[in-house]
Amino acid sequence: MRVFVTGASGWIGSAVTAELIATGHQVIGLARSDASAAAITAAGGEVQRGDITDLDSLRAGARGVDGIVHTAFIHDFSAHEDAAAVDFAAVNLFGDLLEGSGRPLVIASGILGAVSLETDRPDPAMSWSPRAATEATLLGFSERGIRSSAVRLAPTVHGDGDHGFMAALIGIDRTKGSSGYVGDGTITWPAVHRLDAAHLFCLALENAPAGSVLHAVDDEAVPLRDVAEVIGRHLDVPVVSVAPEDAVDHFGWLGRMLGIDSHASSTITREQLGWRPTHPGLIADLELGHYFRVA
Ligand SMILES: NC(=O)c1ccc[n+]([C@@H]2O[C@H](COP(=O)([O-])OP(=O)(O)OC[C@H]3O[C@@H](n4cnc5c(N)ncnc54)[C@H](OP(=O)(O)O)[C@@H]3O)[C@@H](O)[C@H]2O)c1
Q1: Range of 140's domain?
Q2: What pLDDT is recorded for position 91?
């Protein structure tokens, strides 16, 4: 397939791009900078220069393709609503472009606190994240002749090179001189390795039925106290409980998220697409030590 990939130079999108190319697909990657363009070219992809805020560049990238994988997102938690609005507009454009074609559109979505099963449909009005509305719209594209699917990523997608929540938590713990968890530490998060998540995007592109929700979840519920204990050992700092009311003060922007209890299953995804995670789980991955290398 000829596939337009947004976020092709990103952490997860670059792994999706690498696997698509390795399995014989052609990738046109959206690049907003010379560095991103160079990374996509080096991976063997073609480059569409542009920006997810520039709908004309998305139209150009999607012209004549057999499918779209959308992983780009503006990660600015101080303007999350604006970023979600940009995402919503991009996904709606892709819907208009693919209408009636039967072609696949796969987007990155999330799980944190909102859902446990693939069949759960959070009410966008009740969700903490404005991205829930984008997922709901995407799933409706199945009625418009589009093989749409949403890959709900576990809140921690982990692996070497991670610059997401786990890396941020370790950075905060390093600065604080302690490894913290919220409350009694029984709050859990699902987790998945980056390469297993990337494989699921590829399976979704090739085979997911229209209107599918897929869970990129390997560990269903990792207690955040267990995470804190591994981090504490590797950083050689004490492991401490942080009261829920002090979480934002202690962890900053991450405090709100560390207080959200979340668990999720991927049984339906595994049955539907034959997806089998093969890479280390979160605790084993933390134990490997790459998160604790100092640059
Ligand atoms: N990593 C996680 O733990 C996690 C968990 C849940 C959900 N997700 C979701 O999974 C998706 C991929 O995440 P990731 O970890 O791979 O993120 P990432 O490494 O930050 O990659 C984001 C990608 O989006 C691109 N991008 C950002 N702003 C753009 C803009 N204005 N125009 C064009 N491209 C733009 C970036 O381009 P550059 O390469 O040029 O910077 C990059 O390629 C996102 O939707 C994210 O929210 C991730």
Answers
A1: 2-156+192-216
A2: 98
Q: How far apart are CA 260 and CA 252, in angstroms?
A: 14
73 lines ligand 1 (CB under 6 A): yes
Mutate to test the pocket of ligand 1, among 6, 82, 153, 200 (most ligand atoms within 8 A of CB): 153
Q: Do 206 and 286 lie in a common domain?
A: no
Among residues 139, 153, 149, the alpha carbon closest in space to that of 208 is found at 149
CA of 108 to the centre of ligand 1 (A): 9
Q: Tens digit of pLDDT for each residue in 112-155?
A: 776 899 999 888 776 767 888 999 999 999 999 999 999 999 99
Q: Which residue type is seen at 4?
A: F
51 lines ligand 1 (CB under 6 A): yes
Ranges of residues in the chain with a pLDDT under 50 are none
Tell me the C-alpha distance between 81 and 131, whole Å: 8
When divided into structural domains, the chain yields a total of 2
Q: Is 149 helix (H, G, I), strand (E, B) or coil?
A: strand
Indicate if 199 and 185 belong to the same structural domain: no
Whether the model pTM is above 0.70: yes
Q: Is 138 in the pocket of ligand 1 (CB under 6 A)?
A: no
Whether 255 is in the pocket of ligand 1, judged by its Cβ within 6 Å, is no
Residue 281 has a pLDDT of: 98
